[in-house]
Amino acid sequence: MSNVTPVRNALISVSDKLGLADLAAGLQRAGVKIYSTGGTRRHLEQSGIEVLDVAEYTGFPEMLDGRVKTLHPKVFGGILARRDRDDHLESIKEHGIATFDLVVVNLYPFAATASRPGAKFEECVEQIDIGGPSLVRAAAKNHQDVAVATSPEQYGELLEQLDAGGTTLELRKQLAADAFDHTAAYDRAIADYMRGDKIAGEFPSAMHLSLRRKTQLRYGENPHQRAAVYADPAVRSANLVSARQISGKELSYNNLLDLDSALEIVRGLATPAVSVMKHNNPCGAATDANLATACKKALEGDPLSAFGSVLGINKTVDVETAEVLCQPGLFIEAIVAPDFEAGAVGMLTTRPRWRENVRLMQVGILDDPPPSVSRRFISGGMLVQDSDRMTSPRLQWETVTDTEVDDALWDDIAFAWEMVRHVKSNAIVLAADTSLIGVGAGQMSRVDSVEIAIDKAGDRAKGAVLASDAFFPFPDSIEAAAEAGIVAVIQPGGSRRDEEVIEACDKHDIAMIFTGRRHFKH
């Protein structure tokens, strides 16, 4: 028996009308009878499509302000009847029920309504679809005979198969799986809203992820690992997954990790800023009133590591900035920015030796995202925490040394403290002229991180400031900083040996600021 099922009757009831008129026109050309309700029926009629009214077909009018439209045996019987069962066919014939071979339904926009600022609870409740999910589930259950479409993205393949005589079982099974994904995500959004993201400050008792695969990558961190990218439909702020790639090769797994970190560094900075990322740690970053100058300063933070890096930029990339990036001897893997001037794109993709290889990612306006949680999978489950986006306000900072902070250093101190939370622990950064000049990342000993950062900075360490993501357990790091010429240190404080560390700073005329907040990043 052929697994191709002709489509003679279709039921259409959608909230999202995108592409609907084209689909219905294709169905009409194929001789399909179309049954519809309410706003969908009116939309199709206005598009010149002949439509049969579901209310006339069932003999029962829409009621309760449209809450009851399709909940009727003549609708669900026509969807659920098995075509290979004589008793089913005799039953629907007895009751004058038409069989539906195609159901096209997408649901009320609950998530969009609930996420709109100022949306009232009653308004959101009215966007909880009842008949729609029931139709979708019924059609998906009976996919042996019925095709179900829940997204405009599916219309093209449906029409192609109709032109060939009907839908295949393979397509109907795939559409059924998509349909159950659709209703599951819909119910999850409602449950999360009804419960609230948090209850009395606690995390929810259950957490479910509903992501859709966007693309499969060539490989993961290493060539023997498979990898893919999944999109979170709940994220609406600028991000890498929804970004538009305007030039360059396919992004790799590692590119995406680095670009995401590079974007996170510059996202919250008001002045023009550039971050230079290598192996998911910043090797350079800077701010300046002029974007091109900030870019130059960021690349000079660690020129050796900047080769083959990815860049995060918080303003539109202009021609002047592109000129900096086109300097001989520099190789950039990828750049993420809100936008790129046409002239800058032309320069970046034609002038350097890397030319069309550089990936240019346009993410749009870097709006400040709402507070969120970070998730990390471990064996047997998942760790969840608030994202570390809140740095301690300067009003809470305390100068704990007798040595006062030179007023000219405060911008560098604030910049260093903002940067250190983006570096893997144990984290030490050195900053001067609001740019990174030395980074010590991911060491088991804080002393090692200090020495690496100082070594990276070289002579530039003289007069620079140092930030540490956590307290100093001993004064040995201060001795190393003093020898390098560091003039100020900012750190959380909280060690049992804080007094010894403070005494070491005063001994070398180094000002020290306590913030009272740690920024571990494991």
UniProtKB/TrEMBL annotation:
Gene3D superfamilies for the chain: 3.40.140.20, Methylglyoxal synthase-like domain
Database matches in InterPro entries: AICAR_Tfase_dup_dom_sf, Cytidine_deaminase-like, MGS-like_dom, MGS-like_dom_sf, PurH-like
GO molecular function, one term: IMP cyclohydrolase activity
Keyword annotations of the record: Hydrolase, Multifunctional enzyme, Purine biosynthesis, Transferase
Segments forming domain MGS-like: 1-150
Pathway entry: Purine metabolism; IMP biosynthesis via de novo pathway; IMP from 5-formamido-1-(5-phospho-D-ribosyl)imidazole-4-carboxamide: step 1/1; Purine metabolism; IMP biosynthesis via de novo pathway; 5-formamido-1-(5-phospho-D-ribosyl)imidazole-4-carboxamide from 5-amino-1-(5-phospho-D-ribosyl)imidazole-4-carboxamide (10-formyl THF route): step 1/1
SMART domains per the UniProt record, alphabetical: AICARFT_IMPCHas, MGS
Enzyme Commission identifier(s): 2.1.2.3, 3.5.4.10
Catalytic activity: IMP + H2O = 5-formamido-1-(5-phospho-D-ribosyl)imidazole-4-carboxamide; (6R)-10-formyltetrahydrofolate + 5-amino-1-(5-phospho-beta-D-ribosyl)imidazole-4-carboxamide = 5-formamido-1-(5-phospho-D-ribosyl)imidazole-4-carboxamide + (6S)-5,6,7,8-tetrahydrofolate
Domain notes: The IMP cyclohydrolase activity resides in the N-terminal region.
Similarity field: Belongs to the PurH family.
NCBIfam families in the record: PRK00881.1 (NF002049), purH (TIGR00355)
Protein name according to UniProt: Bifunctional purine biosynthesis protein PurH
Taxonomy of the source species: Bacteria, Pseudomonadati, Planctomycetota, Planctomycetia, Pirellulales
